[in-house]
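Note to self: keep these together.
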Amino acid sequence: MSLQIGWFGLGSMGLGMALNLQKHLQTQGQSPLHYSNRSLVKGQPLQDAGAIPERDFECLVQTCNIIFTMISTDDVLNDLLSNALGNGTSLEGKIFIDTSTIHPDTSASAAERLSKKGATFIASPVFGASPVAAAGKLIFAMAGPASALETVKPLILDVMGRSIINMGEDVRKSSLLKICGNILVISFMEVLSEAHVFAEKTSLGSSQLEEFVGNMFGPVLESYSARITSGSYAPPLDQGPGFAAALACKDMRHALNLAKTNGTSLPTTEVTYNRLSKAREFAGECLDSAAMYGTARQEAGLEFWNGKSRQGNE
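Structure:
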C-alpha cells in the first residue's frame, strides 16, 4: 500500500515533530507530508519545507491513510474523530495515531469508534518537551494492533523519537503510562520549586543548588531547575510557555480522577494542582507548568516573580 502521511496539530510540540517527519519523507523520496491545523498560518514552516496544507481535518483524512494528531484536550480529539466519522469518507484501512496526553477512556473510545469503520487507532503519547521534539529525541509510548505498530514504526524511530515503549494492544495502557510519567515530572517540578524557595529564604541561593542538582541527578532535573531560575516559569507574553500551565492542570486532573477511581491518592499532585491553579488566577495563562514556583514564593512571603521572569515587562 502506498502510504500518504497526514498531520494535525501544530502547537509547540506538534510543529517540531511534523517538521522532522516531513524532512524524513523528503530524504526517503516519499510523498510529502499533508498537514492541517485550526490556524493554518502556523504551518508556514512546514509548507516552506515542502509539506502540503489541507483546509481541515476532514480533507486531511480523505487524502491520507496514516494520520497523526497532536492536540490539546480530549474534547478536541473527540470532535475531530466525530467529523471524520460523520462526513461519509471511507476510513477502511486508515491508521490514526494520537500523540497527545488524553484520558485512557478517551483512547479506548477512539479505538472502538474507528474500529467500527474499519480503521485503526494507536495511542502514542510522547515524553519530552518542545526542544526534545524539535531534536527528534522523544520517547513514544505506543499501544494498538501489532501490525499497525509495525507499519508506523519507521516513521518514528530516528525520525521523531529515540525510542518506542511497546505497551501492547490495549490503548488504555499507553495513556496510563503517560499520565503516570506526568505525575513524576510535575512532582519533580514541585519539589524543585520548594527547594529553590527554601534556598532563597535561607540565603543559600539558587545557583549552587542548581549546580548540585545537575551534578547529583543529571541534566534532566537540572533542565527542570533551569525553568525556575531562568524565569521561564513566567515567560514574556509574546514568547509563550514551553509547556502551558493550563495543559499541565488538565493532565493533573486526569491523574487525580484516575487515582480516586482506583482507590489511591496523589498528595503531591494535589498540592501542585492547587498551586498551579492559583498561579493562573494571579498571573494569567501565559505561564509554564513550572509556575507553581511563583505560588510557592508567595506563600513564603516573596514576590510571585523572580529577577528573570516577565515582571519587568508588565
